[in-house]
Amino acid sequence: MNQRVSLPTANAKVERHRLYGTACISFGCLLAFIVYRGWALPVEQLGLTLLCTCLAAWPALRWLKLQPYPFPAFEVFMLTCIPFYALQLVSEHEGIAMYDEGVVLKAMLAVILFQVSAMVAFYRTVAFEKNTPFWNEPIFTRDITRWLPLGLWLNVAYLYVGYFTDWLPGDINSILRAIFFGIATACTFLLGRQWGADELNQHTKTNLFLALLTASILQISSLYLISTIASVMVFFLAYISAGKRIPVLPLALIFIVLTVLHNGKGEMRAKYWAEGVPRIQVTDLPELFSEWLEHGLEPFRDSEQKSKQRELLERASLIHIICLVVESTDQGLPFMAGETYGYVAPTLVPRFLWSNKPSGQRTTSRLAIHFGLQTEESAKGTSIGFGVLAEAYANFGYWGMILLGLLIGCFNKVICIWTRNSPLLSNGGLFMILMMAWSIQAEMPMSTWVSSLYQASICVLGIPHVLRRLFN
What we know:
With about 475 residues, the protein is mainly alpha-helical.
């Protein structure tokens, strides 16, 4: 009897140790890659890049080793500093060269200051577990696996309507985008957990794969990759957490595909985001992706193409954005003194209660206009991802980075402890699934991040209560 009880625990410890070892090896390879790609950088920049990478990875490695709670939302958020700041610095150092070395150092120091503040706040904040029914009571008592793919296909239907038709007004479209992304995120995580635990039949696996592939194609056709990356990461986080193994080959293939698409997105945006270019239709997708792959696989570019790509990188890369903000404020452009944070509260008011409610893109537009990236007119058609870190520096400089780090660290720790005992299909579990997905949305300013998470949470947590009697 004792052996039967203890054997699964022993196996779980072995699997966890193996997963942690694989992650450590992967992290070592990442550091080696950064040194290789960043060898031409000044020593100080390379050193700060390595420090930023270590600070970003340490919480995740610690969680893999100890797994003190089931939902690593804070760890996922910290990991985003690697692709959005560290790797962009070493892989696009020619574009960074447009900024003075001192500006780049100040930008990286700002990122590191945020990381340290967030980690101090997270590991020093004390909270108590929530044992109330709201957080820990299962929403469903029956198996709902067969209904989960429906949530993914509903998101596919929305993506088609939202991206390829004019049926939805802009403000309604932004609300529905958050709601359906939240529904798809919850369904993806739950199905990923079951796949990792070998609890799905082949039919459901095929249905899940086709739904995720279709949604990814539709999302990528907008020439934004972040939503697809978030969906992929949510699935594999769930799969790895349940299966205690890393699917190296699928992850490698996805990484290659996303790398090629990232490499060619500059030319694609220059062409398809130009003024007067008609909207892409579904029938155009084969030609679109064929052209995109040609640009992504092109080994060399002439100087004109490089110049155009650098201009786009300055708009699309978060490390470039922080460098731009640092340089502009150093040259006398005033800090915004919390102006953009004043847009957070209004986004939480339903539009039917406030007919003249400002657009959800107001923060992004205001930041782009303030720093000279866009005019009032151009901001109406194209948005630029600033991210919460650049927004914090734009408002209060280094103090903004410290305050943002403390806020994010404290908030994540409190929610993490509150939901420590929450089942997956409870309010606490579903909310933490959304938190992990939104932690990847590093390009959003605070108002957009809060409002979209709020809208998705209302829907994802509210609908199950309405449908509870149907399943129970």
